[in-house]
Structures are given as C-alpha cells and as structure tokens.
Amino acid sequence: MTQTDATDAQYLADYRPYPFILSETRLTFDLSPDATQVQAAISLTPRNGAADLVLDGGRGLDLVSLLIDGTAPDASHVIRDAETLTIRAAALPDRPFTLTSVVRIDPSANTAFEGLYLSNGMFCTQCEAEGFRHITFYPDRPDVMTVFHVTIRSGLPVLLSNGNPLRQKPGLAEWHDPWPKPAYLFALVAGDLAAVSDRFTTASGRDVALNVWVRPGDQDRAGFAMESLIKSMRWDEQVYGREYDLDVFNIVAVDDFNMGAMENKGLNIFNSKLVLASPETATDGDYERIEAVIAHEYFHNWTGNRITCRDWFQLCLKEGLTVFRDQQFTSDMRSAAVKRISDVQTLRARQFREDQGPLAHPPRPDHYQEINNFYTATVYEKGAEVIGMLKHLVGDDGYSRALDLYFDRHDGDAATIEDWLQVFQDATGRDLTQFKYWYTDAGTPRLTMAEDWQDGVLTLRFTQVTPPTPGQPDKPARVIPIAVGLIGPNGDEVAATQILEMTEAHQEFRFKNLGARPVASVLRGFSAPVVLSRDIDDDTRAFLLAHDSDPFARWEAGRDLALSALTQLARGQAAGDGYIGAIGRLIADDSADPAFRALCLTLPGDEEIATRLAAEGHIPDPDAIHAARSDLARRMAEAHQDTLSDIYDRMAVEGPYSPDAEPAEKRSLRIAALGLLNRIDGGDRASVLFGVAGNMTERMAALTCLIRLGRGESALAMIEEQFADNRLVMDKWFTVQVMAAPPADAVAIARDLAGRRDFDWKNPNRFRALLGGLAANHAGFHAADGSGYDFTADWLIRMDAANPQIAARMSTAFETWPRYDPNRRAKALAALEQIAAQPGLSKNTREMVSRMIAAGA
Ligand code: 0A1
Ligand code: ZN
Known about the structure:
Blueprint: E1 10-11, E2 20-30, E3 36-46, E4 53-56, E5 62-68, E6 78-80, E7 84-87, E8 97-105, E9 115-119, E10 122-126, E11 146-153, E12 158-161, E13 164-169, E14 172-181, E15 188-191, E16 194-201, E17 207-214, H1 223-240, E18 248-254, E19 261-262, E20 267-271, H2 284-299, E21 308-309, H3 315-333, H4 336-355, E22 367-368, H5 377-410, E23 414-415, H6 417-428, H7 437-440, E24 446-454, E25 457-465, E26 480-487, E27 493-502, E28 506-511, E29 519-522, E30 531-534, H8 538-547, H9 551-570, H10 577-587, H11 594-601, H12 606-615, H13 622-639, H14 641-650, H15 661-677, H16 684-692, H17 696-708, H18 713-723, H19 727-739, H20 743-754, H21 764-776, H22 778-781, H23 787-802, H24 804-810, H25 822-836, H26 843-854
Parallel strand pairs: 2-11, 17-18, 18-20, 21-23, 24-30
Antiparallel strand pairs: 1-22, 2-3, 3-8, 4-7, 5-8, 6-7, 9-10, 10-15, 11-14, 12-15, 13-14, 16-17, 19-20, 24-25, 25-28, 26-27, 26-29
Helix pairs in contact: 1-2, 2-3, 3-4, 3-5, 4-5, 5-6, 8-9, 8-10, 9-10, 9-13, 10-13, 11-15, 14-15, 15-17, 16-17, 18-19, 19-20, 19-21, 23-24, 23-25, 24-26, 25-26
The structure holds O-methyl-L-tyrosine and zinc ion (ZN).
Residues 296, 300, 319, 322 line the site of zinc ion (ZN).
C-alpha cells in the first residue's frame, strides 16, 4: 500500500497470541498534573512454558520500581527500548505471578491527547488504539483481556473509572469492572464536574444509574444527551435483544478530544460538541449527530466491548457493525429515507474520495504503519455498507439469526472478520467466500448497465470493474446485490424491488412478460457501494425523479440530472434547463415530505462536482466549478422564485424550538429555499432571519447566506459578542467565515483568523474549525497560486509537533491532489514534500504524506 519504509509496518499475517494469560489488573493512581504516579499490579500466567515478557511502554514512562512477586528482578534481565520493556524469561517464574510496576508520568505535558492528559484542569484518558502504553507498561493489544480494579487518589471532587463503584470517600475512589476488557477500553476521569442524572431499568430488571458529567454550569445543555442515551438503551433491547450489564453508565464531556467520542466500558468519554446542546447554541444537525453518537458509543457495549477485536486489522468488525447499528437507530428515530440519502452523501464525499485516491485501503487492511491512520471512512462507513449488503443477501431473518449466533458464540471473545463471516455461513447456510472480497479488497467497483427491450422482455446487462488501488492492481469480481424495480409508462410500479445477485464480471438479468417497456429503477436504496453508470437520458431521469417509489432512487435521479448539468456548465457548455424544470415540479408537490424536497433542492457541492468530472476523465477546474454552481443556483431561484418564496414562508415553525424530526425537516426545507433565494434577493431575507431567529439552525443558515454575499460583518460581530465564552459556538464562527467565503478571499480570511488570540490551535476542535473550514472551501483551498496548500502545510507541520493524530488526519485535505491541473499538482506536491522534509515528523503524518506523495510518482 505504501512506498515508505516497510520495516516499521505491522502485518496481519504476523499475528501470534500473547504468551501470557492475564487474570487481573490492579491500578492505583496518585494524580498530580505534572507528576502522576501509577502503580500497576498485573497477574500473569505463562501460556505455553517459558517466554520473555514484553510490555508496551515508551520513553514518557519514568520507571520508579519493578517487582516480580515482590522481588526486583536482576537488572541484566530487564531491557528497555524506545517502545517496550522486556523481562527475560530467565527472570520469570514458570507459574502464575504478579508483576508490579510504579511509573511517573506528566499529564500536563501531554498535548497529543493520547493516554492520560489534562483538559481545562480535568484529568481524562484516551486509550484507543494504543494510548494505554503511555500510562503504564502493559501488553497493550486488544486480545489481552482482564478484569480491572482501579484506585484513584486525588483532591478533585469527582473521580471516575470503568465498571461499578466500590469505596468512594473524599480524596479516594475505587472502581471494579467485572467484565474482562482490553486496555484500550480503560478510562479514568477526575475533575470538578456536575451531572445530569437519571435511571434506567433494563428488560430483566437491572436498575442502572445514568449520569452525563459536564463542567458546572453546563447542565442545562446536557439533557438532550441523556434523552438520547435512554432511547438508545431501549432500542438495543427491543431491536437486538441487548441489555446493559453494569450498575452505572457514565458519560463525560471534555473540550480537548481528538475524535468524536469513545466507548470505554461504563465510562464513555465525549468531545463536548457531541454532548452539549441548546436551541441557542446547537443546530438541528448537531442534535441529530449527538443522538447518533451517543447511540453509537452505547451500542459498542455489545459490539466492541463484550465482543472486541482480536487485533487492530479487525477494527471494522466493531466499527462497521456499530455504525450500521447507529444508522438503523437513526432511521427508526427519524425519517428512514432522509437518513439513507444523507448516509450515501457522506459515504460518497468521504469514503469514495478515499477509495479512489492514494489513501485507498480495504475495510480490513493487511498492514499498516500507524493504526491511528486507519480510523477512516473506509473502516467505518464502508464497513457499515458491507453489513448492509450482507443483510440484503441473507434477508432480514437471516441477519437476525446470524446476529443472535454472533452474540451467543463470541460473547467475551476478541474476534475476527473470519469469525463474523462464519457466523453468517452457519446461521444461513450461505457460502460467503466471494463476499469476503468486500473486506479484503480496496476500491469502489464501477458498475455499468446497458438495457435491451424486445418482445416484452427487458434485459439488463451489467459489467463490473474495480480500478486498481495502491498495492492491489487486479481484483476478482465481487458479489454485488443490485436492488431493482420496474416502473410502467404511466408511472406505476410494474415490478416491486427485488435483489439481483451479480457474481460475475459480466452478467445479465431478464424480466419477462411485460406489456410495455418499463423504466428500470436500479440500485434502489443504494444496495451496494458502487459507482453506477447507465446509458440514460435526461427525460428518463426526470421521469424517475417524478415517479420512482424508492426515495433513494428518486433523489438519485435528481442528483444525476444536477450533476450532468453542473459538469457541462463547468466545462463551458450550456445546460441546466431540464433540471430546473424537473425540480420545479418536485418542489411544488406538497405531498412529498419537506426533508426530501430539501435534499433535492440542495445542489451537489463543488467537491462532488470535481469528483464527477474526474471520473468522466476531465481535469476539474475549481473556479469554473464554483461559477457553474453559482450560476445554476441563481437560475433555479429566478425560475422558481414564487414557489420558493412561498415555501420559505410556509415552512416557518411556530412555537418553542424542538429538535424532533418533524420541525427539523421543515426547517431544512426552509433553509434550502433561503439558500437559493439569497442568490437573487441581495441577502434581505437572510438579514431579517438572522435578527429574528430564536434557534441556531436558522441563525447559522442566515449567517452563511450573508457571508456568501460579503454581508456577514455585523452578524459575525453579534455572534462574537454574544458567544465569546462559548467554545462550541465560536468554533462554528471560525468555520463558517472561511467555508462560505468567496474562494478568492478564503486563504486571507483564514490567515487573519489564525492570528487571533482565541485561535487556541492546540484544541482539536478549534484547529479543525479553521483548517477544516478552508479544506471545505474547494476553490479556496485549491487556489491557483498555491496559497491554500502552503497555509495548510505550515499549520500541519506546527500541529504535528504537538498532536500527530490531528495533523495526520487533517492532511487528508490533500488526498485528491493528483486529479488537478499541472500547476496545482506541482504546488500541492511541493507542499506535501515540505511536510515530509520536516525533521522529527511523526510516524502518523509521515505515513499519510508519503502515501499521498507516492500517488504522483
Ligand atoms: N472507537 C471510537 C473512536 C475513537 C478512536 C480513536 C480515538 O482516539 C485515537 C478516539 C475515539 C468510536 O468509534 O467512537
Ligand atoms: Zn465506534
């Protein structure tokens, strides 16, 4: 997969069980910001005779003492290097023994937010994937599981760890987690915290105390997170038959966090942006994400914690399944159609982009250098799509039998993708040999369809090809479930959805005894993560947009129409009238639900247009794309001014704000209409709305509109004045100014903002707000003078020294660089090379940058 130094790569094929079995881990923490002492007593039994004991743990651990059954081993038997501590077999008993170490660590110096660190004076941990080794010497791998007993000594008022509380008194807390777990699920939190509390009684009668811990004063923004938790607990019992298994469930919100949230057993730790919400500070999108991520982390208790991964190559075993489950949850809580369409949009924007560029990798990779670089859209989102396909192939009953067997057979295990597939084979009798390629091969299959109509028979001919990806030049045909329905000339469905199973490189399917030629609705519900091309004209697309009974396929027809118009416009051709007409009919149709109409009204973004152009063999021109999109939006607004204006007025929601699906969907249509009208009303509606809106959803929408027109100044000043102390709102404030800026101004604005005192760049949310805002301004980031690339590269270098995970993650702003023109390519490559040349660059960023550079070689 990479051209980089292969010597420090890890390989799936090298897996060996750990030579010791652990039965208990007892940890004692004496917390202090710059000198925390950690005592770890680990009970071990040699698995098969004598072996060296190799523990993970690097230079940041200051070893104070080391004892084996109370006696120090001879120094000649103890070997330390940069990443491990080894005790030679000769110094170890050949029966069960206890290893007790004491180390000192400095949480206040931990700016990488991996291991034990401080966030606003609060101690917290992040141990996935390999953070525990920064806390103490330990076999830090997911297949080493044991019961943990934790003692925390600190003057801070709230002291939390995993499991159930034992002794709790001022200055001391003891926790016991009865469920054996790997070290990556360990967590500790200590701070001055306040809780929103509730209770939940499980189906079998266990009474569980629930707490959402926040900074004192933030309790009024934590209620929605608690409601979401209770809904998740109930849903997992009803739909998957899974109950919670401890007496307490704690959630803690922290301001400094590298990712979204973490499923530590009984003590989930969250980025505060995924917990805190009030109508004045959070948008409908924020509420929906909070509900989904609370569910995701809670669902991990079974898919991730009770059944974990044997090694990190199997990451999608827990992540793909848990994303699939949280998507099902959201579809049940909100509109299933809207959820599916937005999941496909995300998949295409993130995973297709990854899968078609230098960073492509299989959902289950077979080697990596830095595991933190593999928390990707491919592992998460494609991992979930693969499960959706499996469900299509075995049916709902088969899926449910397989899941019951999975929980039954593997509870308490550290499992593999092979185990997972075996469960489906055993529960359904289906051979999944060919299906497994979805896990082991990278790349997005291209599916081409041609049609033939003769004597009442419709023939659909499919061809599949998966383009080469780094390290995988040729790929065998995959099994692809293609959901197809047929629509008669009058718009009625003449054949209901059925799944065609494609298993060959070329394959045809016949539909017989048809009276008149139907229109095929293909890949309904996006039944497989492929790129479909078919020979279809705009009239047929418009027909599908008007009549398809499958909401995804219907939306997709409109999307295709829009993309075909936009790509032509971007290439200097006249286009768009057909799309504008078809959209006019759809938005006037009050029987279609508002959120669906909103999705249809929102044009594909610049990035998506660039991707389509590249797929069609053209070099995307960011400025031409931006101009094409603005042009089509303005023409849509002109053509449908009255209808849009009517929608804008009618979709106003009366009464107090509620984040529920129904009002949120009305707001989404209202905002979509506003976005178009803003192109022709000079910003008048946005300006009024900004002043009167009582919720952040409409205020942000109005602010975005004003910024687009260069009229954002006073609205930005008002937000700043009102919310200077609210980090989460100020993060949005940073993002929107750069993201919505006219592309020619974006880099200069980003530069100004980076010079502000409140650009607290070591905070991952603030850094992402600014750099991510620029990356999302397609023509701004890809400015022809290379200023977007240089600005980003400079900041990545700076961030890398403090927090390698964040720098490596944000480096993906460059991942599409090979598809642009020679001038931009040269400038992007120079920026990547500048990063690569940085002395002391982290392994994380080095791996990412060298994979991206290799693509241009
Ligand atoms: N397992 C978490 C994601 C996560 C992964 C790594 C982290 O730190 C490097 C933090 C969180 C989830 O899927 O939610
Ligand atoms: Zn997860």
